[in-house]
Write a structure and sequence with these properties.
The chain is of the alpha/beta class. The protein is built from nine helices and seven strands, in the order E-H-E-H-E-H-E-H-E-H-H-E-H-H-E-H.
Length: 304
């Protein structure tokens, strides 16, 4: 399809993606494959699972919340591309429960061929206000839970002498730091390190390990604490080089490619899907606004 002509010098941003339902890979790419997606009941996890489903995969979606799983399972099953959907309640901080989920997946569809580590925890808080429990909660889910899932997946493939593919969802502040999100930034930096370390360790055994970093991709399941600062953000967003936000299906297409037969020589890599936003720099930097002010907090210690 021919792109519409643009006025010389006009800034109109990156073109939008193909419509929902389009696929980035040939139909049936994942027929006969099983894909396990953590955090697959909501948000970007569900969007990623949907793109695997369109390509024929059998899905296992895991979530801590049982209330999210049934509607997600029905929605994903309704895509109707031949795949089946198993829903499993799983707190990825619990290695025993993870083992049970893998056992259930194997009994239903066979050993998962692809693991998508999407589950994470996050909320904004000034570092000095962060409680020990807040730190542990985010790091245990985002980093330790990702490690537990990854380890279980790899051990089963190593024992079976079969190849597999792991895609772990990261964040660009693993490289840049994340003021207001010290716990999550530290955890995502750990996830990034796991991608690079394990790709080397497990490559000889046929196991790929890659990362996927979404940019600003609003969706209905964002928590209020995260969604609040994004109020007013629409498809056209002049604060980003692309002049638009991302669509959940664009993240799903990237995940299906990284885990596909067409990306077998790609491992240890992190693909950033954010319209170049994380590389943006201004000729003159904007004024610094302390995180406490950005979050509407008074002075530390109750002085304001």
């Amino acid at each position: 399809m021919t792109e519409p002509k643009k006025t010389a010098g006009a800034a109109s941003g990156l073109p939008g993606p193909p419509p929902t339902g389009a696929s980035a890979l040939p139909p049936g790419t994942y027929e006969g494959s099983t894909v396990l997606v953590t955090g697959g009941g909501t948000g970007l996890g569900k969007a990623i699972a949907a793109e695997f489903a369109r390509l024929g995969a059998d899905l296992v979606i895991a979530s801590r919340s049982a209330e999210h799983l049934l509607p997600a399972r029905e929605e994903l099953a309704a895509i109707g591309c031949g795949g089946r959907v198993l829903a499993a309640v799983c707190d990825i901080r619990d290695p025993e429960r993870i083992t049970e989920v893998f056992e259930a997946a194997e009994a239903a569809y066979g050993l998962p061929d692809v693991l998508v580590n999407n589950a994470a925890a996050n909320f904004p808080v000034p570092a000095e206000d962060m409680s020990p429990n807040a730190w542990r909660s985010v790091v245990d889910i985002t980093l330790t839970g990702t490690w537990f899932m990854t380890r279980e997946f790899a051990r089963r493939h190593l024992a079976a002498r079969t190849p597999g593919s792991i895609v772990s969802v990261g964040a660009s502040y693993a490289w840049t730091g994340g003021p207001g999100f010290a716990h999550s930034a530290a955890a995502k930096a750990g996830v990034q390190s796991l991608v690079e370390t394990l790709a080397v360790e497990w490559g000889p055994y046929g196991i790929q390990v890659n990362g996927l970093v979404p940019g600003l991709v609003p969706h209905d399941d964002m928590t209020e604490a995260i969604r609040g600062p994004l109020d007013g953000v629409r498809e056209k967003d002049a604060r980003q080089p692309a002049l638009r936000v991302g669509q959940p299906r664009e993240v799903g297409w990237a995940a299906t490619f990284l885990a596909s037969p067409y990306a077998r020589f790609i491992t240890g890599h992190t693909l950033v899907v954010d319209g170049a936003n994380w590389q943006r720099r201004s000729v003159v930097s904007a004024p610094v606004v302390p995180v406490r002010e950005q979050l509407g907090r008074g002075a530390f210690g109750g002085g304001g």
